[in-house]
Each structure stands twice: as C-alpha cells, then as structure tokens.
Amino acid sequence: MKTIVIFDPKNLISANKSTFIRHQYYSQKLAELDSMASLTILTFRKNGKSFEYNHDNDKLKIHYLGLKIYSKRNREFLSKINTLVFGDPFLPPTLFRLLFLLYFCPKNIRIQIQLHGDFFQSEWKNTLRNKAKYFLIKINIKKANNLRFVSQQQLAGFKKTFPYFKNYFISPIAVTQSSSNIGDYGFNRPKVVGFLGRIDRERGIQTLVSVLKLFGRNSSIRFLIAGDGDLSIHLKNQIEKFDLMNEVEIVGFIEQKDLEDRFWSQIGILISTAPFESYGLTMREALIRNIPILTLKNSGSMELLNDFPDACIEFYEASKIDGLVTKIPEMLNLKIDAQLLPRQKSIDGANLEKLLRSWLGSQ
C-alpha cells in the first residue's frame, strides 16, 4: 500500500463539509491513478480510533491521534506513511507537532509542503506576524522534498526570496469540481455588489467598509456580504454606525451547495478587498459565471489576467477608491459572454492530476 497522509492539526478538513467533499473526490481520483494508494487525513482533535467516512465512497480515512499520542496504534500508523502533506507551516505549535511526527515516521518519508498564501510581495514582511511566518517557512522548506504553489506569480515571488530551492510545482485548488450547477449571469445582473470570503483582517475588511461608506445611503446600488470570521461583529457595527442596514445585507457563511441560489445569482459584481491573494479561487468562481470582478493587484489577480486575458477584470487601489463611484455602475451594466468555464475545467483537470502524481512520487 501507498499511504498518503495530509496533516491537518486544526481539523480544518474534516470539520468543513465542502472541504471534506473535495478531499473525498481527491481520494477517488487517487485510487483511479493507483489502486494501491490511499488518502488519510491526520489530525490531533478528538479522541478515538481511526474510522472511515462512507458518504460518497470508502476511500478517504481520518486518523485521530487523540491525547495518547505515544500509543502503539499511533506509532504503527505513522510508521506506514509514504508521503506526508503538510499545509500549515506557519504556526510554532504546528511546526513542533510536525517534528514530533517525523520522529516516528519512516526515515525515507516524502514531505510535501503546500504554500497557499501570497507571501512574497515586497510589502508582505512589513508586520511582525508575517516576519514570524517567513522565519517558519525557512525552517520548513529544508525538510521538504517538494513545495506546492497555487500560481505562477506566487512561485515567482518565492524564487526571488529562496532561489536555492529547486523542487517545486504549481497546482491550484480545482474551481469547477465542487460546483455541479454553474450558472451564466452575463446579462441583466442585479445592481448588487457581492463579497464572499472570510471576514477578517487578511481579507481587507477595512477597505470593504470604506467602499460601503463611499456609496452610502443615497445610492441605488446594494451590497451582499457572505462569510464569517473574527471581524464579523466589527463589520456589523460599522454598518449600523453609518446607518447602512438597508443598503448592505450580511448573510453569514453559506454552504457550497447553496452558493448558486443564495449568492452568485444575486450579485452583479464581485469585489475582492484582499491585499494578498495567491490564486483567487472566489474570483475564478465569479468569472466562469460571467460575473465581472473588481480587485486589488496581487499574485492571484495577476494570474487571472494571464489565464483569462479576455475576462472582465478591473483593478483599483485601496487608497484611491473614489473612482469606484462611476466604475461600479459601469461594470454592472456590462453584457458579458466570455465562455471561460471550458478553459477553467481544462486547467482544473491538469492541475489535479499533477497534484495526485506528486503525492505518489511521480511528479
């Protein structure tokens, strides 16, 4: 057997339904490539024995280490790992746990680190928090057999910072796999600006608040905000403070299966306020539906421009948003027929096979 294990110390995969379903899909495709391969999610949360989910298939497993990390069951499991995929190398507790795991793993284990953040723009290391992340990246890449990036732009920034590391590849998260009913909203879209994502500092929520204030109560344009996070209460307080409750609707987190009806079909533009974006998954979701996007310049948005030069992508600066008063109404009235969905499906298929082969050691 070839045992591929994804290290998930914060239980982010098994606790999130859409993320878990995506990994079930990975396990199915992995078995098609190699019938001897299995995919397991490894987490510290919850006590109890390893078990298999049986929602859509019986391929994906979750192994809980529990409190008795030194148990015979855990040592036996760790000793059989062929590839360990490590996707969160930026927190000291996670790093220490990884070092502990490697003590029990085979000496010839393959380690893949997945870098999802837009970490290498010149402004990125301006904060103490990000300087600490940078330090942890330096420690972790020395242990990796290969690094996975999600965009060419992200990789280009990394190579400027770490030119000596040569073993890497690019494979973003699939956009089209999780959506079975993808609509086309190129014509007659609602006069609504949509925001979809985490409500936290890294998503540029203060910029979003500034845009809401810019349009204010006298505009015919409405805003739909979907997501939750650390700054959800702050955002609601700001909306109440400026008396924008009738202009802005916050609907919280929306399940993947409900996004088409409750979000995508309800908006005319998607706005991204994130200063750093490695791939722009949500922006791609909008473009394949012929919904124009308004975004800051970052690795993700520049990669979009490379993949879809004919897409409706408009850029703005967080410090200069006054021009959006005219720009947004213009974008809402655009008629779009870009036909980007087939291209994105082709990109997704190639990237997924590349990822799975990297786990098997053939990439």
Shape: globular
Percent helix: 25-40%
Largest sheet report: 8 strands, mixed
Number of helices: 12
Please outline what is shown here.
Helix content is 36%, strand content 17%.
Description:
This protein is of the alpha/beta class and 363 residues long. Helix content is 36%, strand content 17%. It contains 12 helices and 14 strands. It has an 8-stranded mixed sheet with strand order 3-4-2-1-5-6-7-8. A 6-stranded parallel sheet has the order 11-10-9-12-13-14, sandwiched between helices. Helix 1 (17-33) links the parallel strand 1 (2-7) and strand 2. Helix 1 (17-33) packs across helix 12 (341-360). Residues 47-56 have low confidence and may be disordered.
Short key terms for the protein model shown above:
single chain; 363 residues; alpha/beta; six-stranded parallel sheet; globular
Question: What is the topological layout?
Answer:
Blueprint: E1 2-7, H1 17-33, E2 37-43, E3 51-52, E4 60-64, H2 72-78, E5 83-86, H3 92-104, E6 110-114, H4 128-141, E7 146-149, H5 152-161, E8 168-170, E9 192-196, H6 205-215, E10 222-226, H7 232-241, E11 248-252, H8 259-262, E12 269-271, H9 281-287, E13 293-295, H10 299-307, E14 313-315, H11 324-332, H12 341-360
Parallel strand pairs: 1-2, 1-5, 2-4, 5-6, 6-7, 7-8, 9-10, 9-12, 10-11, 12-13, 13-14
Antiparallel strand pairs: 3-4
Helix pairs in contact: 1-12
